Amino acid sequence: MASNAFKTVNDQKVRGMTPGCSPLVESLPGRGTGALLFKRANESSPVCYYRYHMAGKQVLIKLGTYRRTAREVGFTLPELRDQAAALAQIAKAHGDVKAYLANQEADAEAARLKNERAVEAARLRDDEDARERRHLAEIEASRGTFGELFLDYIESRQERATVGVVKELERLYHTNMLAPHPSIMAMKARDIRPDHILAILNPIWDRGAKVQADRMRSFLSAAFSHGLRSENSVGRTSAKSYNLESNPAALVEVEKVSVPAIRALSDAELRRFWGTVETTEGIGPVMALLFKFVIATGGQRILNICQTTWDDYDLKTGTVRLIHRKGRGGQTMSRPHLVPLTKRAIAILERVRDINGCHPWPWTTTGKQHIVVSSPRHAISDWLKSKHAIIDGTQSPSFSPRDLRRTCAQLMQRYGISDQLSDLLQAHGQTGVANLHYRNNPEAALPEKRRAIELFEHALAKVLGKKQAAKVVLLSKTKS
């Protein structure tokens, strides 16, 4: 039959199609492979379809626009034939080309979506990894160095320790840690090992400062103990964390070499010091009177005396009020210590009032602050260098301001003053639960202290070779 004859088209026939004309058909080689079908519905170029039959019905799949000239967009006749041949192979293998292409498109879309989801998941993982890295970097940056840990420890001591202790800690940090070992100070505190502690302590030990090496180890151990507990403390002000797991300083041992101090002035030395300190070159009048006042009050701690103001001297009761902050409690465990004054002490104080009565502190050489703890040491050094320190042709051994306290204590012991009275007068052993909670009224101890200072004054007068100055009196009975 003519309708079953193999049909072909060429470019001339396709180009010659007019709008609305009948379609042109070109059969593909082989039975049931379908055909090319060209339609021109309007003035536009003809459109080519692949035609096949499925279940007795014609199915068309658009291939594209026929390109009539080189300038037009579309496909040439050979290109359209190639497309149709490819679809014919699909028809031969799968039957329904349109359904196959739809499935392929769906599979491709699913693959595309799957790939997009995989790419998005990978991006999210990368973002999460980046956030985690930033978070870990922030944590690492927030973890304090060894130097920051020690400074944090010093800061924690501000409210509890005395100003002198804090300044000493700062000095030790700069001289024994930061200056000689900057690389160790820059290490994270959690990475410090016992060998780093030894690197700090050995140079101190090797230069002969063995006691300081032991104290330095104690401070380092206390700093790490502070770091171990501080991160879980409520109200902590420091933003640094240390992530410590152990205390490396606690694993280091320093040989105990502390030797009890035994230097005390002999009676001859005390008598010479008392009689010549005011005439020694380099020692000012206030400093000289400070030494005498310390001795006259039974060997009170010289720094506590220096820190007093005129308001601490009570004209009615004849006492001076000292504040003791010695011990672990520091500032938080400050306790008053009332010291009764003898006529000898009052006479010294009146001479000081003539010099410094216009300043807040009796014991000042500048009027701007009280005498600092290092100044008495230098003054005693000047006395030791003077001719006064040579007694019976022998140079007096070196001593420090605190040895005056020991001298007074031993003087009381030699003259039969009980240890209990001596300790009470010098504020020794006034800590503990009973004293903190029960014996905490300074005025209640005054009668016993007055008895102690009277006995001490009697002993001192004998040593100085002068008539006993007087018993304890009230300042209100003296010249105001």
UniProtKB/TrEMBL annotation:
It holds the Pfam family Phage_integrase. Residues 260-451 form the Tyr recombinase domain. InterPro entries: DNA_brk_join_enz, Integrase-like_cat_sf, Integrase_catalytic, Integrase_recombinase_N, Phage_Integrase. GO terms for molecular function: DNA binding. GO terms for biological process: DNA integration; DNA recombination. SUPFAM superfamilies: DNA breaking-rejoining enzymes. Gene3D superfamilies: 1.10.150.130, Intergrase catalytic core (1.10.443.10). The keyword Iron does not apply. Keywords: DNA integration, DNA recombination, DNA-binding. Belongs to the 'phage' integrase family. PANTHER family: PROPHAGE INTEGRASE (PTHR30629), PROPHAGE INTEGRASE INTS-RELATED (PTHR30629:SF2). This is Tyrosine-type recombinase/integrase. It comes from Pseudomonas iranensis.
